[in-house]
């Protein structure tokens, strides 16, 4: 069974707690929306945090809304640039890498760096139609002028506010040759459907 799903490639970014935002940018300093995102009423803002590691620093854009905990999502290539080894995760855990967040207002240390595991967002209706379940690992095949590649272990996330999308990071997007709007095929075999 095959189903076409839009693929979005996520550049490195940071989710901030309200307290960390207030420290880095000043309490009640407003931020502007510069790009609407597909999930959870998220949007990219005009605010940039410099992420500092042992070997360098690199800017990351703050995505609204605020989260309970500050969370920085980099690709492996981004991590190499600043000399950080970060785990592959879906949310902040104790083992996330230590980094420094810096703006002109000052800097703070946070155990907040992860590489986001590739995942598929689906609403309960999409999930029922596709016969997929929360936390199921599925395969997504992508074909571009670069050739065909299949991403396995794509983690399914279901929420009533989700739009049907696959999220890859920039390393994965580049490996697949994705440069523009792109669709992948969900591949489910009979075992997936019956389990
Ligand atoms: Zn996502």
Task: Describe it.
- The chain has 195 residues and is an alpha/beta fold.
- The chain has 2 domains: 2-7 and 118-194, Barwin-like endoglucanases (Beta Barrel), CATH 2.40.40; 12-116, no CATH class.
- It is 17% helix and 48% strand.
- A 6-stranded mixed barrel has the order 1-13-10-12-11-14. Strands 2-5-4-8-9-6 form a 6-stranded mixed beta barrel.
- A hairpin with a 2-residue loop joins strand 8 and strand 9.
- The longest helix has 8 residues, at 18-25.
- 31% of the residues are buried.
- The structure holds zinc ion.
- Residues 39, 119, 121, 167 line the site of zinc ion (ZN).
Question: Tags for this entry?
Answer:
195 residues, alpha/beta, Barwin-like endoglucanases, 2 domains, six-stranded mixed barrel, 5 helices, globular, binds zinc ion
């Amino acid at each position: 069974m095959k189903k076409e799903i839009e693929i979005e490639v996520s550049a490195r970014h940071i989710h901030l707690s309200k307290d960390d935002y207030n420290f880095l940018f000043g309490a009640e300093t407003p931020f502007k929306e510069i790009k609407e995102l597909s999930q959870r009423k998220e949007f990219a803002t005009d605010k940039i945090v410099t992420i500092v590691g042992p070997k360098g620093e690199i800017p990351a854009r703050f995505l609204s809304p605020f989260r309970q905990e500050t969370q920085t999502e980099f690709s492996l290539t981004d991590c190499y640039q600043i000399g950080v080894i970060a785990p592959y995760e879906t949310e902040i855990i104790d083992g996330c890498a230590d980094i420094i967040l810096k703006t002109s207002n000052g800097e703070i240390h946070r155990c907040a760096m992860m590489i986001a595991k590739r995942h598929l967002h689906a609403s309960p209706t999409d999930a029922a139609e596709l016969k997929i379940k929360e936390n199921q690992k599925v395969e997504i095949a992508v074909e571009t002028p670069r050739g065909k590649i299949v991403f396995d272990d794509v983690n399914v996330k279901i929420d009533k506010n989700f739009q049907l999308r696959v999220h890859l990071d920039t390393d994965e997007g580049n490996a697949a040759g994705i440069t523009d709007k792109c669709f992948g095929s969900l591949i489910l075999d009979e075992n997936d459907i019956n389990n």
